[in-house]
Design a protein that fits this description.
By secondary structure, the protein is α+β, with helices and mostly antiparallel strands. It is built from 11 helices and 12 strands. Strand 7 and strand 8 form a beta hairpin. Helix 1 crosses helix 3.
Length: 296
């Protein structure tokens, strides 16, 4: 590192030391984040993660140096591109990803940005009083008009499609209408833990979907264990209940008297008796204890 200036060399040494000691090291994209929001993000993560902005070439040198203590950490340098910062944390990579995603907020466009989604204005009243605002909205493509002393948007209008650049005049009117199309925050491009580099696409999992899949697998495993009569701490209760039910059914079907089956056998006998009695003339009335119908 003789080619690095002394002050930069100290910075690399310090950063390499931090990376060597941290449980998790992450590379984040900081492009387009205003200074106040960046400071707010740092404050929110205080105590859980530390963010340090450094030039990319110095960051690569630090990762290379720290790789002596953390195998393959240098591979994390493949995620360095554009305006980046390094994050050191004690959180696991997936938790760190969720923490960073939670710092994101909506922000107004200034013009020239790529629309992350279709940008619509919806029909309805606005809080503006009649004046030059109507012409400015119309110039940006917003179907604005004055009705009953109020500025209204006559109909829904798609102003910018996904992937298109947002014109400056459109950005100004979107901000005026409090439509904030941009999402500003730290994008975790990659994270290192215990010899493994996790890319963003690996970390960006749908937690609700994963929980649902785990629950489904649990239900299927329980159903299989019950079908196979495989005893476990979870299945033993339902298996014993099913065995008891089967045993009781067998005792009733085979007319085997037990303390539990006797009441079902008596009920079954009474039912059969009533069916037979119904086939004998006059016997049905006698079985119910009613008069025979004879006269004196």
């Amino acid at each position: 590192m003789a080619h690095v200036a002394p002050q930069k060399n100290r910075l690399v040494e310090d950063l390499a030391s931090r990376c060597a000691q941290a449980r998790v090291i992450g590379i984040v994209n900081v492009h387009g984040i205003p200074a106040p929001q960046f400071q707010a993000i740092r404050k929110k993560l205080r105590g859980r993660a530390t963010i340090m902005v450094v030039k990319n070439n110095l960051l690569r040198l630090a990762l290379e140096k720290a790789s002596a203590k953390k195998p393959d950490l240098v591979k994390l340098g493949e995620t360095i591109e554009g305006q980046t910062a390094v994050v050191t944390a004690d959180l696991n990579p997936f938790r760190l990803y969720r923490e960073l995603e939670s710092t994101k907020t909506r922000a107004p466009a200034r013009g020239g940005e790529i629309a992350p989604e279709d940008l619509w204005v919806r029909a309805g009243e606005t809080p503006f009083k009649p004046g030059p605002v109507v012409g400015e909205l119309q110039k940006a493509g917003v179907p604005a008009a004055i009705e009953r002393g109020k500025v209204v948007i006559k109909q829904d209008k798609l102003l910018v499609k996904t992937g298109q650049r947002i014109p400056r005049e459109v950005a100004q009117q979107l901000a005026r209408l409090e439509i904030y199309p941009l999402v500003v925050g730290l994008d975790l491009r990659g994270a290192y833990e215990a010899g493994t580099v996790f890319r963003r696409e690996t970390l960006a999992i749908d937690e609700a979907m994963i929980r649902g899949q785990i629950a489904q697998v649990g239900r299927e495993a329980l159903a299989l264990a019950l079908a196979a009569a495989y005893p476990t701490k979870v299945t033993i209760g339902p298996l014993l209940a099913r065995a008891h039910s089967n045993a009781l059914n067998l005792a009733v079907e085979s007319e085997f008297p037990t303390k539990e089956s006797i009441k079902f056998l008596l009920a079954k006998a009474q039912s059969h008796m009533l069916v037979l009695a119904a086939r004998v003339p006059g016997a049905a009335d006698e079985s119910r204890g009613s008069p025979s119908g004879s006269t004196e």
